[in-house]
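hey can u check if this looks right to u? its 97 residues, i copy pasted from the old doc so theres a chance i mangled smth
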Amino acid sequence: MTLSGFLDFIILSLATYRITHMMVGEVGPFRAFEIWREFLYNRVEWGWVKDGFNCVLCLSFWLSIIFFLIYLKIGTLPFVPIGVSGATLIIHKVIYS
């Protein structure tokens, strides 16, 4: 793996971590993630979908596939700000844990 490929992997991993963390455990801007979770809980019939959106490991698996497909089409540029946010979240957890 080249250095560029390794950096792409790190960026995609951090972006996946950040988005997963937001969707599973944060309220989000304008309560967006909270409203999304309430919608899934109240309207979706399939239990595995509801459970998947409450599980960091489950959701990160599916998001990583989606992000990888996007990466193949357009590269890492859209994931850089999200990846930086993911790195910041990890640093914050390390410092304040």
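Residues 3-25 form the longest helix (23 residues).
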